[in-house]
Structures are given as structure tokens and as C-alpha cells.
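Hey Z.,

So I finally got round to the NAP thing we talked about over coffee. Here's the setup:
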Amino acid sequence: MAEKSYPWKLAWITGASGAICGELARRLAQAGVTVAATARPSEKLDGLAATSERIKAFPADVLNADELKSCAARIESELGPIDLALMGAGMYVPFDIRNIDLDGFHKTMALNVDGVINGVAAVLPSMLARRGGQIAIMGSLFGYSGWPGNGAYGASKAAVINLAESLKLELEGTGVDLTIINPGFVDTPLNAAYDPKKKLFVMSKERCARKILEKLGKKPYEIAFPTQVAGFLKSMRSLPRSVSFPAIRAFIRKMGA
Ligand SMILES: NC(=O)c1ccc[n+]([C@@H]2O[C@H](COP(=O)([O-])OP(=O)(O)OC[C@H]3O[C@@H](n4cnc5c(N)ncnc54)[C@H](OP(=O)(O)O)[C@@H]3O)[C@@H](O)[C@H]2O)c1
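And the result:
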């Protein structure tokens, strides 16, 4: 198979021991990109690094801002400038109005929001200094609209979508690009607790990684898929709530979800 060519020499990926980001790391390494793979120390992370000499493990906890800053500095001193920093560490917990899992809510917000900004803060100064680089943030289509059962996850992804908009506006003219990646359901351990009947238009991690890499090198502001779900959820955002809430309920009924 011919190697694809991407505009990056070195990519830093957080959440690299996970399903989607591990798949991205493997695909990038196959295409000749060096990947600095970050997650907490584990056999999974070491196992990923063992699949390619182009994948190097840089274990760190994204919740620890200082540790992440040192991690990014170590990557740049050992491997060179980070061209692509993909903030992928994330989690999902179910949200039940009758039994609100406060601990799960706080952990989800911390990992999905603080974990992202900690990574951005670790890598952005060096990108700004050299006027180059691309930051990519893993959001979710469920950041666009409230959805039953998604109170924690959806709130965290709405926060990073808004953060990405602010960053994009402010990065104008700095030479640093910003991309928000908003997939729909992907079949991974992250949403194992989700009722399978409610996983609409679910895709494999391979398809998800392929869809991301088809576009990421062109440095768009947003990559969102599958198209049907993206179109529906984005339109809900812009409609009056008196229209969007009944539309969401009708959609859920129609899908039998
Ligand atoms: N699956 C979906 O349906 C879906 C859809 C849209 C968007 N996304 C987003 O895509 C990203 C990846 O999702 P996935 O399904 O591939 O998840 P996953 O397989 O559960 O992977 C989650 C990753 O986050 C890492 N992580 C968790 N806590 C961490 C911490 N404190 N410090 C460093 N790393 C930590 C995990 O590594 P360790 O636990 O080993 O540290 C793992 O590598 C997430 O941001 C998710 O929200 C997923």
C-alpha cells in the first residue's frame, strides 16, 4: 500500500493508548510521521510504542499541567518541534437525572476540558515562538446539542467546542492552526456503558481514524462526521428551542433509540 503523505514530521497525541488515538498514531507512523504517544504509564502505551519504531511513548497524566508541560518540553528537546498536537484523552460517564453521578461528572469535565487546555498550554508557547504548528482537539458531535444521558459528556464537549472557537479567533495571524474534530458514535471502550440501541450511526475506530486523516492535513477548522448526524445536531443548535426539543424527541422516537 502506498504511503500517504502528511504535512507533519512530529505529532504529539494524548489519549494515544486509547482506541481512536491509538489508531491515528499507528496510521501516522505507517505514513512516516514520528509520533510522541502520551497516556498514563501502562502496558497498552508500551505496546503501542512497540508496534513501530516511529512511535515513542511519553507517559504523562493530562490532569497534571506541570507534568504535561515537562512532557511536551522533553518531546521537543528529544525529537524536535511538535508540528501536530492532538488532544485526544477523554472519557464518558452516563448521566441519570434520578441518580446524578457527581464524581463522574467532575472527572469528565476535568479530563475532557482541563486535560485539553493543559495540553494546549504545554505546546502553544513553542508553536507561537516559531510561528507554526497545528493543534487538534477531540470534541464530539454531542457537544452541539443536549441529548438524554449525555449531561456530563455533552457539557464537556460543548466546552471544548467553544474553547476551540475562541482559540481559532485568537490564533489568527500567528501561524498556528487549530482544528476541532467532532465525530459521532465510534465503537470503542469509551462508550461501553452506553445502551447499544442508542448508538446511532456507530462507526469503527478504523473508519473514524481514516475520516480524520483524510482532512486533518488540510488544516480545516472543523472535521465533523457522519454527515447526517452532524447536520442534524448542528441544525438543532441554531433552531429556537421550541422547535429543537420536539425535533430531538421525535428523532429519538423514530430511531427507536
Ligand atoms: N468513542 C466515541 O464514540 C467518541 C466519539 C466522539 C469523540 N470521541 C473522543 O475521542 C477521544 C478518544 O476516544 P476513545 O473512544 O478512543 O477513548 P478510549 O479508547 O477510552 O481512550 C481514552 C484515552 O484517554 C486516556 N486518558 C484517560 N485519562 C487520562 C489521563 N488522566 N491522562 C492521560 N491520558 C488519559 C486513556 O489512557 P490511560 O487511561 O491509559 O491513561 C486513553 O488513551 C476522546 O476525547 C473522546 O471523547 C470519542
